[in-house]
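Review form for a predicted model. The reviewer records the input and the model, then writes brief findings.
Reviewer: anonymous (R2)
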Amino acid sequence: MTHAAADLLRWLRAAHGPLMFHQSGGCCDGSAPMCYPEGEFRTGGSDVLLAELEVEGVDEPVSFWMSRNQYEVWSHTRLIVDVVEGRGSGFSLEAPEGVRFLIRSRVVGA
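Model under review:
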């Protein structure tokens, strides 16, 4: 995760409580990581828990889930959570702030 993403997660944690991410394989903003209050997005057998992100200044890890289909496509990459200017989906907690989370990736071994 980038420093900007960690800063935003600290702010969102203070405002909304424990957090989680879900990364779907959908189109448009559905392919961006969505940040929710922990447990607000229901995960199931079609999702994979990729990581428990440790963020300095946040008491608990931020779980990062991905749809199994998307994981199969991205399993050979290193994913980096970042944040950029611009509105993303209205479902993600950062949307009203004029920024959006996004994933940057690098092929493993490259």
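Findings: The mean pLDDT is 90.
Further findings: Strands lie at 19-23, 34-37, 47-53, 62-67, 77-85, 99-107.
Recommendation: see findings above.
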